[in-house]
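WARN retry 2 of 3 for item q-0093 after timeout on previous attempt; input resubmitted unchanged.
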Amino acid sequence: MSYRLPPLNGLRAFETSARHLSFKRAADELCVTPGAVSQQVKALETALGIALFRRLPRGLLLTTAGEEYLPSISRAFREISHATHRTAPALRGRRLRLGVAPVILSRKCPAIQGLTRQDQRQLRVNLSATGDLGELIDGRLDALLRPAMRSHPGLHLEQIELRSPKGVTVPATLLTLPGLAGCLEHRALVKILQEQNVSAET
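OK item q-0093 returned
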């Protein structure tokens, strides 16, 4: 059985843009230019023969067709991610390799300390004391937690506010390669960091 599919890059650009309602923020996640995202979405709209977004001066709005299309496309990407996680031997059971900059480790934030105590069914982490971007870029790390930074070409950035044992805010940035951003391990890591911070504040 053959499947009639629209451009897959366009589907990814559409799904990401729809989550952010912004070509610019979608481009940041996908590590391409906003113009490239816009062109991919336009090519998808042309292939489908419908408009998926209304382009506004300050962002995007989904059309009725876009609102109907988005849940199925998002579900399809989640299923692909889950199937890959279940099937790929290299991913199944492997610990997430997380680098944490020594300056952040020195603050002894409960969120970081808690990572090594997480239930293995939720997330298994190998934690290294390093802030070296080169280790992330060349594949020796899956994610890197560094002091807050605004941007870095080719990487997905997520801002995290950690708390020290004394309740002092420790701004940090979680960096990942685009392929890991949004996957099960990435979402679990962000969730753990956020939940540990809530626990530290209460």
